[in-house]
Structure formats: structure tokens, C-alpha cells
Amino acid sequence: MDLRRALLSTLAAVLAPTLAGCPSTWNCHPPEEDFEVDAVLTVETLEKISTEWGVEQGQLTCDQICSAHYQEMQGWSAGALDSCELTPPMVDEDGAVTQEGRITCAGTGYEYLCKGRRPLGYVEAQLEGGADAVGQALVAMAVLEAASVLAFDELAEQLEGFGAPAQLVARCRAASKDERRHARLLTVLVESRGLAVPAPRTRVEAETSTLLEIAEHNAVEGCVGETFAALVAHVFAERSTSPALRRVFATIAEDEARHGQLAWDLRAYFGTRLSLAERAQVDAAQARALAELPERARRFAELPAEFGGTSAATFEALATTLTGYLRVESAA
Fold it and tell me: Which is nearest to 242 in space by CA: 108, 154, 127, 138?
């Protein structure tokens, strides 16, 4: 599953006309630019890209390294590349650099898909009301981010227990660190409004989850929930009336897009460990979640206007379009 492709296609189909300020019958496209990258490539940079992409350093492609460099430099996403040349850095047995690494590439970049996050937006049903609706929404979001720290820590331990690849475990632990940072960012906004963020509730210790239960939960909460949440974050980061909200959601977004990709990569891994009947059960759970998504998506419009004032119809269109892409991709 190429999550970025599915998200980009959805955003272009649904939001490009409105973000560009033109009627849907016009030939509108997401903002784009021609770009060139000519940068030194260090061992440390390769390690970071390897972790983010979930690929061993020796298996990283020139395209992946170019995309990561361009995104770090511009904050946009690389599309088609016209050229790409890679010279990996070389070190001796003592760790001394014997050959400087370099990445040189050129292509087209798009503004979409630098933004995304996991389902913070599913918070609207939990709002407690009060004079400060924005503050209450941020409180609930901050609590969910803090809870996500625990969720990714738990998932990493579960995967480790089942002997999953070290890269998947490492990406879960990295995601936990991301969520901790997100919770801090949102807490700052909450406290600036004179409110406080309660600690997330932790459930009573349950019996050890089976691999099937973990896979089913990932299919629903990760492959569907987190993936759609990436689109919601894009809307918040683009349309919020508050510069502070736009900055925070744009910061959160990049990490959350990787978390969505992690969910799909985990789905592929679970598929190699489950029986045919178990895979069918996971697929059925995901299909139900996809079928429910358009109606659930409409609830995002209930958030205060400061989050962008996007209509329920637009959120439903995003969900419906994305669902179509995901069904095609997951069946491939």
C-alpha cells in the first residue's frame, strides 16, 4: 500500500478546487513546483530515513532518499522524479568517513501530503461543552495523543513478543515518541486557554492479545482511522482560523502520515502470519470500518469554526473518495 498516493489522489479529487479558490468544474490542481536537490548525505541522515521509511539502509532507493530530503527541505511531497543519482557515504571499521555521500535529484513536488495525523478528530463526540468549545476540543485531543503514547508502547511490546521484524518494532517506538511530542504541543495550547489536560485513563490489564486481535485492531484503528485522520489534519492545518492551530497541526501532520503508513505495513506483515480464515476475518472488520467511515466523517464538522468550518458534506466526500482508493489498493 502506497499511502501517500492514496491520500494525494483523495485530496486532489475533493479539496483541490476549494483550496485553490475556484469552482469544481475548473481544471484545478494542488500547488506544485519543479525542484532540485543536491545535498551531502551523511550516515546519520541515512539512519533517520531508514527508520522513517521502515527500510534497511542498504535497501533504500535513490527515490526514497530524494523524497525524504525534499520533504525535509520544503515540507512538500515529491511526485515523479526526472533524475536521481546516489553516492552512499562510506565509513571504515573505526567509523571514520572515507567517502562523502551525496544525493542529487530533480522532479516535481506537491504541497499536499506533508500534513496528516492519526484520529484526533474522533474527539468531537467526547466534548464536554462549556464556554470555551475550542479549549474543550483541544483537551480531548491532547488526552487522545497521550493515550496513543501508551498504545504504541504496548504495540511495540506485543510485536516483539510475536517475533516481528525489528524495523516494525522500532517504528512503533518512534511513533510513541512522536505522540508524546504531539501531546506536549496540544497541552501548551490548552494551558494557554487556562485549562488543564487530565491523564488518559488506562484500562485494567487484560489477557494477552492474540495476533489475530492485534491485526484486527490495526486494520480498523490504523488502516482506516489513522489513514482518514491524515486527511482531517490536512484540512485543519490549511483552514484553521488560528495561526497557532495551523502551526501545531502542520507539525503533528508529518509524523502522523508515517503512522498511517506503519499501519498498512503492519497489515502486510500480519497477513504473512495469519491463516486464510483469520485474514478473511481481518478483511471483514476493515470492510465494516470503511463502510461506516463516510457517516462517521460528517461529525468532524461539529468541531468549532476555529478548526476551519469545513462542511459535513466535504468530510463525507473525503471519506467516500478515500474509501474507494483503499479498497482498490488493499485488493491489489
Answer: 138
